[in-house]
Amino acid sequence: MDEIKDLQKGITEILVAIGKIETEIKQLTNMAGKWEQTDKLALEAMQSTKAAHKRLDELSKQLDELEKKLNEDKKQSKDDKKWIVGTLLGAAALIWNLIKGGVR
User: Fold this and answer.
1) Which of 1, 6, 20, 60 is least surrounded by CB atoms within 10 angstroms?
2) How far is residue 70's CA from residue 18's CA, in Å, rounded to a whole number?
3) CB within 8 A of 97, min separation 6: which ones?
4) Are 23 and 17 a contacting pair, CB within 8 Å?
5) pTM of the predicted model, to two decimals?
């Protein structure tokens, strides 16, 4: 009789252990699923980041080109102003000469 009780107790302990193992397996399976989801999200985030960096690099190039064009336009504007000032001074000097007595 004691042997049967011991056997039943052993079987019960084995069943409890199997239940714990099943629970662990379910948790590991759940964690593996979450890992796959996390891995997928990380991959998508990395691809998105690469695309964003590519767009930023393109925008940076465009800004550099715009800055270069702006600097060229500023230089041209300065040259134009110098020409206008020189022309106005020359015209003023010519008019002054004409007023003073004209060309002899």
Assistant:
1) 1
2) 76
3) 103
4) no
5) 0.47
